[in-house]
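request received
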Amino acid sequence: MLENEEIKEPAIKPVKEIFLTFFKSYSAVTGLMILVGIAVMGFVGPLFYPTDPFDMVWMPFSPPGADGFLLGTDYLGRDILSQIINGARVSIAIGFSAALVSCFIGVGIGSFAGFYGGWVEETLMRLTEFFQVLPTLLFAMVIVALFGSSVLSITLAIGAVSWASVARITRSEFLRIKELDFVLASRASGSNNLALIFRVILPNAAAPIIVQSALLVGAAITFEAGLAFLGLSDPNVISWGQVIGSNRIYILDATYTVTIPGIAIFITVLAISLVGDGLNDALNPKLRSR
Amino acid sequence: MKKHFLKTLLLTATLIFTSLGVSFAEPKKGGTLIAAVGNNPRHLNPAVQSGIVTGFPGAQLFATPIRYDNNWEPQPYLAESWEISDGGKTVKLNLVKDAVFHDGVPIKSSDVKFSLETIKKHHPFKTMFAPVVSVETPDEHTAVLKLSSPHPALMLAMSSQLMAIIPEHVYGDGQDPKTHPQNSENVVGSGPFKLVEFKSGEHIILERFDDFFIDGRPYLDKMVLKIIRDPATRTIGLENGEIDFYAFENVPTNINRLKKNANLNVTPDGYAAIGPIDWLAFNTKSGKTADVNVRRAIAYAIDRNFILKAIMLGVADEARTGIHPGSPYYEPNVEAYDIDIDKANKILDDAGYKKGGDGMRFGLNVDFGWPGLRPNAEYTKAALKKIGIDVTVRQSADFPTWAQTVSNHNFDLTWDTVFNWGDPVIGVHRTYQTSNIKKGVIWSNTQQYSNPKVDAIMEKAGVENDMAKRKALYSELQKMLANDLPVYWTNTLPYHTIYSNKVGNPPMGIWATSSPMDMTYIKE
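response:
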């Protein structure tokens, strides 16, 4: 195994260089800072702003700034600022977990397809194509409708419909890498297939998968908001999507109740794509010299 | 002869009114009314299908023995007169002589007998004609209903969409009337309009029936009912004049938005008999809500005013009991459970439900019957937190899932909208009768509420022909129910009719569009 470990590294840039490239990009750093800020707000914020997001604290539909409520109150007189702070935690959690689920399924399917080829590839890639052409929103709605709208079912539904892109990228990376010399050397020195897939090829295919997964986090957050807009959200948990969903019918009378969580989602998703771009620049050897 | 007489009468009346200088809008003949329907009817035969969606085209296609005016007074329709005798156990209907079905076959008393028997057998509202033992047909224009007991609900049950007179020579062919092909195609009706085309999910086109038994009616030449499920599409259609008429609008924001439009009229009138009420139902048999103290505490913690102002945006009315406030039997002087958080907390403290370390006493689930009630469910969560009840809002995947959960009694609290359907015997008794605790049947007594005294009063009120005595009985019933609180009633569902300025005489009676629109016309 020692020999393998020494020769499986070539495609990966040294960690230090990755960091340097990433932090050289202003946009990536800005994105990361926003993201960290939002995460801190979600996890530490409630300690400093303890209003319960479910409590009816004031008159319904107080516009932002009025009566001491920075972002106003919703249709039940609940504090929107508190909903944004507490919703950040759930929205980000849903985003990351759903992306993780996608990543897990996508990498699994893509790597086996790419590595084994033949009928395995045929079957798995037809399945991937099936999921790719499936109307994702409708399919996710069906899953949520079947299993009830809890955070878990929503997360799994989003994960289950978004993995096709990861699978395709993983497969194409595997197709390229599995023919490279260090893989052949590793195979010659007796590594079994699973070791080749997960210990030799996958680490070298990681860069584009990581970038794609980062983008999926943003997509999952918007996806959750989309489901909530259609009324498929967990009424017992405050997420940004849930705030949009429950105030949706008042969109013409109190636009801010929907636009404020919308802006929060916009900023977060923007930050995530900035980070994703930064990661792409930093991890992709072809872009190294830029 | 008769036609001539009516014409003379009409002419005389017109002359008198004009000579007196009374001016009122003269209904104009002709024209097409473009209306919207909010859902797709399963079919168009109200004799075997309940619901307001079938009711709208159904009441145009089929006539009923009587109809109601705006003041809950029965008026002649297919029956030009009626006699009640034998202490209410015999009801004689004298049918209009020259009435014909849309295929030209005369409407006979045997059709009335056939229709009633079909409805009794196949319509979901079993209490409507339960006491009717037989229908006798001494001659072609007389039908005599024999009842086992007095049944004051009968009059309302013979109106609107509830007793459609259907042709025996069409529906008596041995096929199951519930799935009869002529429920949707080539419908042979008895009402003011005949069917041109029913395209499922798209539209229903109705045309004036020239041989309708009321001379000169209907005024309209044509009615086009567009089936539009999306509220936003309907709202925009009304705003830009593509739709002239829509009944049963219940989204508060839409109602308020349309009220601002100068070309449109928006009115809550016309729904008193349909009587839709929003309420919070309790499981009175199992769980914490089996304790009446818990139910009362919850009622005190839920602010009816908040629901009316914040959720309903001021377009709905308060409903303190299970009888619609527009009904003559409504009793407003009951325990109303006006918001009182301290009292609610005290009731729970006294009943031994101590607050835990987190300030919570116990948890309950709240379900809701349709998406329009989700705000109520979310509000319940927030409101009951104040008295230490931790509420979980359960969102059902779809209507059948919710109906299954509630009808199998697997719930603590559920928000629901239930209709009165005219007489309390038809739409009110079912919610509280011990005999109507039917597992698996939605809108039965799913609360599993049982009080022998309440059962006895309903039984008495159901056969009481004297209006004043009947009112007194229902008043007592409402007080007892408010005390036992199997259901906490909050407000009417704010049904509104929206019609453009060019529509004259829209249906403003007690049955909204579940009544014939033979008097509606288009102003030019």
